[in-house]
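Q&A log
Question type: sequence-to-structure
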Amino acid sequence: MSYQNHLYVWEDRFLYITAGVASELTQRHTVTLLVALDPTGFTLGEPSGKQQRYQAALVARQAHRSLDSSQTSLLSMNFDPQSYEYHTLSRFLGNQSVRPVILQPNTINPGELHQIGQGTLAVDRLFRLTTTLPLGISGYKPVGVNIDIRAVHIAQKVKKELPLSSSVAELAAGVGLSGDRLSHLFSEQLGLSIKSYILWARMRRAVGLIARGESLAAVAYDVGFSDSAHLTRTIKQFFGLTPSYIVKAIKVHML
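Response status: OK
Response body:
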């Protein structure tokens, strides 16, 4: 089946489908579920050069991996630390950087998959897929997650106030904490530093601006980078996609 390249971005997750892509080493702030849509599978590479082929795999946050799906169509589902799935899938991964997984039969509806690849699946059904697809992983079970609402509030605030930004001290004061205490709470609850999360939020915004046709220089200035070259390197590290690829080869949907 033929798929066009589409990237769908929500507040706490993003999904892309592609007819085939290859990327150098990336280190994402998301937990990623990769699913090959053809029998040939995809290859993940380690910094050492070792490569492994998979049909479906979970990749942990900040795992350095290259990706080659040039011989297969690919579905990539990425969960932000704000999402429930990020925390439960992280537990399922344990200490593993990459875990091969098996999807139970009929987990993905072929008709919906075709619509995703054409950009025509209704937004509500598309979001539902992001919540049900992890449930199709053999051996995975949802578990209770207790998260301090202050950490979630700060994560939401960081994203929603961009391009404006507050210092850690200002963010902390808003929830009645010191800067050090907020930094500790945020890392403890969401699994990454608040500064790393702010950078992730800026990259998410940058992709939306680039897809909208803004120049790289303007986007770099908007998200706080000194030049477009630095922005390009960082986007590639986070998404495995270059700005030129985003502009020319993929349709971006900010949802």
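Response note: The chain has two domains: 6-136, 149-239.
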